[in-house]
Amino acid sequence: MPGGRLTQQERQQIALGLADGLAYAEIARRLDRPTSTVTREVMRNGGPAAYRADLAHRATERRAHRRGQAAPRGAQAPTQPYGRDVEAVREYEELFTAVVAASGMPLMMSRVMACLMLTDSGSLTASELARRLQVSPASVSKAIAYLDSQGMVRRERDEGRRERYVVDDDVWYQSMMASARSTARLVETAR
């Protein structure tokens, strides 16, 4: 199967396949690409209901432009703690963000959630989040308020009186329970 970046024509074929209701595996077979490539492409660019080939292509060009020039041959990419590859972690963070956003969470909130979930320290301050995500502190504040209201993050005070934001181990269970309670209230109100 060929590697390398998807072309604009391949992205258009993905969009047509989605419009025809094809599964990712079938679209991938038609493009002679791995299913994971098609899945990642769709989830990174709006999900199956909102995927647009032209927007996806421009977004990929922006991401490639942001990364700048490749490191010279022989130079090693910087690593994260525990020896993880920076690029692999960044790609996984993008994929995780896309999956969370496709579930209905707004994009900025999804980015903050992914950043918190993937941090080694287990918690981050608002300034650390703003720096890592390259967004304004106001954007982080709004995202944290939303995630807190959904029971997805917890606030802790550190010794310097700064708030640190934490995602608990049982976040998915708590999220599911909050969703069930919300649905029960909706059903009760509709009766």
List the helices and strands and how they pair.
Layout lengths: L7 H12 L4 H8 L3 H10 L8 H15 L18 H17 L4 H12 L4 E3 H8 L3 H13 L4 E4 L5 E4 L4 H20 L1
Antiparallel strand pairs: 1-3, 2-3
Helix pairs in contact: 1-2, 1-4, 2-3, 5-6, 6-8, 7-8
Outline the structure in words.
This protein folds into two domains: 1-65, Arc Repressor Mutant, subunit A, CATH 1.10.10; 86-191, Arc Repressor Mutant, subunit A, CATH 1.10.10. Helices cover 60% and strands 6% of the residues. It is built from nine helices and three strands; from the N terminus they run H-H-H-H-H-H-E-H-H-E-E-H. Strands 1-3-2 form a three-stranded antiparallel β-sheet. A hairpin with a 5-residue loop joins strand 2 and strand 3. Helix 1 runs antiparallel to helix 4 (53-67). The model is unreliable at 69-79 (pLDDT under 50).
Helicity range: 55-70%
| Proper CATH architecture of the largest domain | Orthogonal Bundle
Structural class by SSE content: mainly alpha
Please give the count of helices.
9
Whole-number mean pLDDT: 84
Q: How much strand?
A: 5-15%
Measure the end-to-end span. 54 Å
Largest beta sheet, briefly? 3 strands, antiparallel
CATH class of the largest domain: Mainly Alpha
Number of domains as seen in the coordinates: 2
Low-confidence runs of at least 5 consecutive residues: 69-79
Number of strands: 3
List descriptors:
three-stranded antiparallel beta sheet; 191 residues; Arc Repressor Mutant, subunit A; 9 helices; mainly alpha; 2 domains; single chain; globular
